[in-house]
Amino acid sequence: MTVGELLQIVREDYLDDDVAPYLWKQATLLRLLSRAQEEACMRQRLLVDETTPAICEVPLVAGQKDYALDPRIVLVESIRYDGVVLNKCTKPQLDRTLPGWADSVGPITDYLQNDLTISLLQAPTVADDGNPLALRVWRLPLTGSSAVTDVPEIPLQYHRDLIWLVIGEAFALPDEDRQDTRRADYYQDRFAKVFGPALRADVLANWRREGNVSFVGNAHGYHGRPAHRLSAAQRFDFED
Asked: Which residue, 153, 150, 127, 139, is CA-closest to 54?
């Protein structure tokens, strides 16, 4: 569905606002639809990417260990270098199993992540300079909804469900002619029933930082269950 088709549904079927002059400006509804798509992608793994160079390729620099990631990345699922998957580590794990890890040398095999920065344990050499790390990521949409001819990037089957957050946020706007907190809560809840509850910042931070963790049950609760048999090299850690 196009953005224009979705907003027509919103105006005609839910806001009763399809005749000018409109109570809700078109720019406002476009902004709310962009937010709805981003929020859907934060709550569920709708966009997985390993081919967009600006997001999925990180060129190495000789001697540099730390690299900023694209802000549209929600989670890094894997990192490959020269076809080999790098091992994701945590600082507590390394402190237990690899004393002196901060001075590791040799081929690039391991990394840490803190929010949207990854840190290689082994610094790239001159031979590595310019070669890319290949990322597979869960990400946000590449662009927002700025025109009625745009099409949401998420899968088609979820397009119509984006309207629930648009309607909820429209009724939540602080205006005496438009605000209706009861309906705002109702439609925001309908959105949550499709895409799940909002992802808390501390949960996302733990997801990004920890390695080898599976998420059982509610995808938005942080369970901290090991994905593999416990070992000195693979176990769950909270970082201070």
From this structure: 139
> What is the dihedral sign for C-alpha 32, 161, 5, 37?
positive
Return contacts of 220-226, CB within 8 angstroms, 24+ apart: 220/43, 220/196
For residues 174 and 194, give the distance between their C-alpha atoms in angstroms, rounded to a whole number.
Answer: 26
Residue 94, C-beta contacts closer than 8 angstroms, at least 6 positions apart: 101, 112, 121
Place of tokens 């224009």: 4
* Contact status, residue 179 vs residue 64, Cβ threshold 8 Å: no
Distance CA 184, CA 209 (A): 34
Reading the block at residue 156, the tokens are 């088609």
How far is the C-alpha of 74 from the C-alpha of 204, rounded, in Å? 8
Neighbours of 203 (CB within 10 A): 15
Name the one residue in this structure whose structure tokens are 């050499």.
Answer: 125
Instruction: List the structure tokens of 164.
Output: 């629930």
Per-residue pLDDT tens over the stretch 44-78: 999 999 999 999 999 999 999 999 999 999 999 99
Write the pLDDT tens digit of every residue in 74-102: 999 999 999 999 999 999 889 898 888 88
